[in-house]
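Explain this record to help learners:
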Amino acid sequence: MEKIVASSAEMESILLQCTKQLLEVLDSVDNVGIEEIVNIISGFSQDGGEKAVTRSEKLQSRELIMGRMLAKSLQCGDPIFEKVSRAVYLALRGIVLGGSGPRGRKLAETALQQVGAVTLTDKVVVAAEELIVAASVSVSIHGPWYVNLCDNMR
């Protein structure tokens, strides 16, 4: 917001840097708060990623608004939450049903593209592979019980 971006390639670069930094924090810290996330984002929106020493009132009010919007968007029933969770669900479903190869990845990328999260495809693939393992274990353990239950319902 504070820095003029000359091209879409430069904007993409800034977004990738911000995403990378956010993912590093989210992966390394167990209980990341909204304040930490907002600080990272506001650093990129202010000057391309380099933190300023002094925080103006304008920046503080912008961070307050970002924090409130982020907190609101993380609640069930919020349109943003619903759209993002649906996209992640479809991406996971694409990997589970299409495999973790090119076909499944393409399905996941298409779903994540709706919310601008294509860069998270690799993480979704890993999560889906873990989901497949959990489902396989569940079927081997609970499968006979399900069969018996269905037979007794007839």
Summary: The chain has six helices and no strands. The two ends are 64 Å apart (CA to CA). The first helix runs from residue 8 to 28. Helices lie at 8-28, 34-47, 57-73, 79-98, 102-113, 121-153.
